[in-house]
């Protein structure tokens, strides 16, 4: 088990996946909160049954899986629905995150969570790493990646913690605005060495 955990976060479209992939290439275990969140509501799960009972059959796809886009649109426009869903899912997700962190074999491990700070998951980590870009970059990258429109992306940005508060909570920051892939990889490599030393001190 890794005794040293780095929480990696950043706003939508900041490049968290690219950064976590670079750490993974160095042999670091990555626990992805988004993947765990998807597994919690997978086809046939108890959580999915409860969601369908609450919201209705129309929130299932033809394959009997959760229609995530449709549900996301609904909860962004309805605070009570969002609260209900969070109260159901957050304890389940947190439980599985803790189990996965305990099983991570590398010298330190990475917890990747877009809502690390919003969901108070920073309490599970020793250090917070933020991937930072400006809002215009977030919108531009997400438009290229997703089928969302600009107003939906803006709503997601508004629902997340502000850039200012995110940076205030950071122990380390990677700037991913107007940098090349090689420059990004260099930033990750430096932090990797730093975290290895920190984890060795913890594990002594």
Topology pattern, helix = H, strand = E: EHEHHHHEEHHHEH
Portion in beta strands: 5-15%
Helix/strand-derived category reads: alpha/beta
* Sheet with the most strands: spatial strand order: 2-3-1-4-5
How many alpha or pi helices?
9
CATH architecture assignment: 3-Layer(aba) Sandwich
Radius of gyration over C-alpha positions, nearest whole angstrom: 18 Å
- CATH top level is Alpha Beta
Q: What does the overall shape look like?
A: globular
* Helical percentage: 40-55%
Q: Write the CATH fold name.
A: Rossmann fold
Q: What distance lies between the first and last C-alpha atoms, to the nearest angstrom?
A: 14 Å
**Low confidence ranges:** none
Tally of strands: 5
Count of spatially separate domains: 1
Instruction: Outline the biggest β-sheet.
Output: 5 strands, parallel
State mean pLDDT (0 to 100 scale): 90
CATH superfamily: P-loop containing nucleotide triphosphate hydrolases
Task: Give a concise summary.
The protein has 204 residues and is α/β, with parallel strands linked by helices. It is built from 9 helices and 5 strands. The model has no long low-confidence stretch (mean pLDDT 90).
């Amino acid at each position: 088990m890794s005794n040293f955990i780095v929480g990696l976060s950043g706003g939508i479209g900041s490049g968290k996946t690219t950064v976590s992939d670079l750490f993974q290439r160095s042999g670091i275990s990555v626990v992805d909160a988004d993947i765990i969140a998807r597994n919690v509501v997978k086809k046939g799960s108890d959580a999915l049954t409860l969601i369908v009972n609450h919201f209705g059959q129309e929130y299932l796809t033809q394959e009997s899986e959760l229609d995530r886009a449709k549900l996301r649109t609904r909860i962004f426009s309805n605070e009570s629905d969002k609260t209900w869903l969070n109260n159901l899912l957050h304890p389940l997700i947190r439980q599985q995150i803790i189990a996965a962190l305990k099983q991570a074999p590398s010298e330190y491990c990475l917890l990747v969570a877009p809502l690390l700070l919003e969901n108070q998951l920073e309490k599970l980590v020793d250090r917070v790493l933020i991937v930072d870009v400006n809002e215009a970059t977030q919108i531009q990258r997400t438009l290229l990646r997703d089928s969302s429109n600009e107003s939906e992306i803006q709503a997601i940005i508004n629902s997340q913690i502000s850039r200012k508060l995110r940076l205030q909570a950071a122990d380390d920051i990677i700037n991913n605005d107007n940098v090349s892939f090689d420059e990004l990889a260099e930033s990750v490599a430096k932090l990797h060495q730093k975290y290895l030393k920190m984890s060795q001190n913890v594990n002594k």
